[in-house]
TrEMBL record:
The active site is at 115 (proton donor). The keyword Transferase applies. It catalyses: N(1)-(5-phospho-beta-D-ribosyl)glycinamide + (6R)-10-formyltetrahydrofolate = N(2)-formyl-N(1)-(5-phospho-beta-D-ribosyl)glycinamide + (6S)-5,6,7,8-tetrahydrofolate + H(+). InterPro entries: Formyl_transf_N, Formyl_transf_N_sf, GART. Its EC number is 2.1.2.2. It is an enzyme of class 2 (transferase). One of its GO terms (biological process) is 'de novo' IMP biosynthetic process. The lineage of its organism: Bacteria, Pseudomonadati, Pseudomonadota, Alphaproteobacteria, Sphingomonadales. GO terms for molecular function: phosphoribosylglycinamide formyltransferase activity. Residues 9-188 form the Formyl transferase N-terminal domain. The record marks 151 as: Raises pKa of active site His. Catalyzes the transfer of a formyl group from 10-formyltetrahydrofolate to 5-phospho-ribosyl-glycinamide (GAR), producing 5-phospho-ribosyl-N-formylglycinamide (FGAR) and tetrahydrofolate. This is Phosphoribosylglycinamide formyltransferase.
Length: 209
């Protein structure tokens, strides 16, 4: 019998309930998936997603981001935790932290984030309310590589949904979240499978359909 291929070791970083984390974990159970979730880390010690991950049999770690003498000092401690768990790739899933340049550099080309807008539009927070206020007819989500500039890394994949006349930020968010849960595992699977290639600001190698 042929041995199962070795899966890449992924850490998911969260700050809250981790709905995208749960989608990544579920996708990792497929035999054909190229990654395993080896660690879930939170900068909020009582983040609800930690309990979800532990119930799934996944190692967890938490470290309150306060009281470490600055962002770079905290990130250095997180980096040590990731190295202890032999992590190869990082997926941000609602991780509400601006990352220091040294941390970003350590994971260059190996760290993804999912953002709830069609980048480059609406970087930062309150994306759904801003899309509605701007009169957008389409909104969506973007998976991108993480770089030092907030929400500006090369785009891996995007998914769009219509903005309806009666949408509120909550109803629009709920529809986009369905697409996030589909898109993020596919993008991470492609990255860990070695199928993505960065060409300037373009990322090649993932069929977004």
């Amino acid at each position: 019998m042929a041995e199962s291929p070795v899966k890449a070791r992924v850490a998911i970083l969260i700050s809250g309930r981790g709905s995208n984390m749960a989608a990544l974990i579920e996708a990792s159970r497929a035999p054909s998936c190229t990654y395993e979730v080896a660690l879930v880390f939170a900068n909020v010690p009582d983040a609800a997603g930690l309990e979800t991950a532990a119930a799934a049999g996944i190692a967890t770690a938490a470290l309150d981001h306060r009281g470490h003498g600055g962002r770079a000092a905290f990130d250095a401690k997180v980096l040590d935790i990731l190295r202890t768990h032999a992590i190869e790739y990082v997926a941000l899933a609602g991780y509400m932290r601006l990352l220091s340049d040294p941390f970003t550099a350590a994971w260059e080309g190996r760290m993804l984030n999912i953002h709830p807008s069609l980048l480059p539009s609406f970087t930062g927070l309150d994306t759904h309310a801003r899309a509605i206020a701007a009169g957008c007819r389409l909104a969506g989500c973007t998976v991108h590589f993480v770089t030092p500039d907030l929400d500006c890394g090369p785009i891996v994949a995007q998914a769009a949904v219509p903005v309806l006349d009666d949408d509120t930020p909550d109803t629009l968010s709920a529809r986009i979240l369905v697409e996030e849960h589909r898109l993020y595992p596919a993008a991470l699977n492609a990255l860990c499978g070695g199928r993505l290639r960065i060409d300037g600001q373009r990322v090649l190698g993932l069929d977004p359909r």
